[in-house]
Specification:
Blueprint (H helix, E strand, L loop, with lengths): L2 H8 L16 E7 L1 H7 L8 E6 L15 E6 L2 E2 L3 E2 L3 H5 L5 H14 L11 H13 L6 E10 L11 E9 L3 H14 E4 L3 E7 L8 H4 L1 H4 L5 E11 L9 H10 L4 H10 L1 H4 L2 H9 L7 E6 L5 H6 L3 E2 L2 H7 L8 E5 L2 E6 L6 E4 L5
Parallel strand pairs: 3-6, 8-15, 9-10, 9-14, 10-11, 11-12
Antiparallel strand pairs: 1-2, 4-5, 6-7, 13-14
Helix pairs in contact: 4-12, 10-12
Length: 359
């Protein structure tokens, strides 16, 4: 995160209080969950073991972490494409985890299938996190979870310019607070639509979305709502590259967003992709599997050639802004020049699905 982003999100907390998590080097392994357990949890989707990894600061057995008496984990519970619902143990084992743990968990979720995961409390990937806590939580300081659930604010609510309002706060040790938060999030953040969407338009706030790694939430969170043969238009004025990590960015540029079968085959025969399974999972997640068109409309920092080479259709941002005025559109159904569209002003806020798809 850049200094301005840190200040905007965390206010006046001094910069020296923040620690950079080096997910490649500054981790320690608390233990491993054996291959057979992982295979059973994932219903045979993958066959490998899973390392329970955390940053060295979180382990009682490292010099860096030995002096802490409590971990306070704060975050929002929303539908998630890998875990089903974000937060709780995901904050620890992914948020402060290492490359192998991130790779394997994300790939397991992608191969198992996003449509079977998103918006659910109990999923194969969540089972890995829960088992990691069950076995190895004693190796860390006690963890106190502070979980929020937020929804789009109502016009009558004033929240200092924020588009979100907190609807629930769940604090406690153990899993119960997560279960309650996930239940409320499912009620507030899962939007079941009565009919398939032929055209969805999603706006990516420049303050939050500079890469498709994050911006593809527009794809993940709408894919269960869009009709076969439909179109997703993504307004991405600040888009400047594909991956947050430059190595991952290079992989995305090389292989592009392709369907699950193609990417799974590539991981089996190509060591570069096989050794970067989180990137492979991301490529699967960002594909529509040929069901609908994904049209990215970037600013000046990504060209038509770059967008199209990654597997997307290209759209001119100025033309898109002239047609879809995000300052006037409301989340949900709108009519623009006689065309009925479904507009979303922040894909991170929820999950949208057709009632025939999400149960």
């Amino acid at each position: 995160m850049e200094n301005g982003e840190i200040k905007r999100m965390f206010g006046a907390i001094p910069k020296e209080k923040f620690r950079v998590h080096n997910w490649r080097d500054e981790i320690t392994e608390l233990g491993r969950i054996e291959e057979k357990w992982v295979e059973n949890a994932c219903e045979g989707a993958v066959k490998y073991d899973w390392p329970v990894q955390v940053n060295k600061l979180l382990s009682k057995d490292t010099p860096e972490g030995g002096n802490f008496s409590l971990v306070l984990s704060i975050g929002q519970v929303v539908p998630h494409e890998v875990a089903g619902m974000a937060n709780h143990a995901k904050n620890i084992f992914i948020g402060t985890g290492g490359k192998e743990a991130i790779d394997k968990s994300h790939f397991a979720g992608a191969v198992y299938g996003m449509e079977r995961i998103m918006g659910r409390t109990d999923t194969p990937v969540r089972a890995l996190f829960d088992e990691g806590l069950r076995r190895f939580e004693p190796k860390m300081p006690p963890i106190l979870w502070a979980l929020t659930v937020a929804g789009e604010r109502k016009e009558t609510e004033i929240t200092e310019g924020s588009t979100q309002a907190v609807r629930g706060l769940f604090i406690g040790f153990g899993r119960e607070c997560f279960e309650k938060a996930a239940a409320l999030s499912r009620e507030i953040n899962v939007n079941v639509i009565n009919e398939p969407v032929n055209k969805a338009v999603v706006y990516l706030d420049p303050n939050e979305y500079r890469t498709t790694w994050l911006g593809n939430k527009a794809v993940y969170r709408t894919r269960m709502a869009i009709a076969d043969g439909g179109e997703l238009v993504i307004l991405a004025p600040a888009l400047e590259r594909f991956g947050e990590d430059l190595q991952v960015d290079a992989i995305i540029r090389k292989y592009g967003y392709r369907g699950a079968a193609e990417i799974i085959a590539e991981t089996a025969k190509n060591p570069e992709l096989g050794e970067n399974l989180s990137a492979a999972a991301h490529l699967i997640h960002g594909s529509s599997e040929g069901r609908f068109t994904i049209r990215y409309c970037p600013g000046e920092k990504l060209s038509r050639k770059e967008i199209e080479s990654a597997g997307f259709e290209y759209g001119d941002l100025n033309e898109a802004f002239a047609l879809y005025n995000f300052n006037k559109l409301k989340t949900g159904w709108n009519t623009v020049n006689g065309e009925r569209i479904f507009y979303i002003n922040n894909p991170a806020l929820g999950l949208w699905a057709n009632k025939g798809v999400f149960r």
